[in-house]
Predict the 3D structure of the following.
Amino acid sequence: MKKERKGKEVRKKRNSEILKFYKKIYSKEVIENFLHPKNVGEIKDPDGVGVAGNPICGDILRLYIKVKDNKIEDIKFQTLGCAAALACSSMVTELAKGKKIKEAMKITSKNIEDKLGRLPPIKVHCSNLGAEALHNAIEDYLKRRRKEKKRK
């Protein structure tokens, strides 16, 4: 019993030290979106899917959208990557949800960075993944829609 309690105490102390480190390099918004990401998951039968990756660091983002009345009604993501990649993925979904397709296409990596606050220069590419995956999902949606119209 003592050994188990000591193990929990060690993990708690280690986690506290990790969080202190993150607070030195990331903004409060990045940490919040990393620890409590929004819109995580997959949409079954999506209207559009976008993927973006960075072969240098290995981050990859898959983003799903559901569109109704030309607005992004639902948006979800799956990310394999670092804390900044997860936070940027979460933030891009929050920025795009409820927006008209044209408005969502205007979302940039700078918009994501601005909403998140501080990203270390070496992690700025993570916001690029968010914008790129969103644009790819919208382009996929538009391409599918054009194909449907041709069939009719």
In short: The longest helix spans residues 125-151. The radius of gyration is 18 Å. The helical segments are 2-25, 28-35, 83-96, 101-105, 109-116, 125-151.
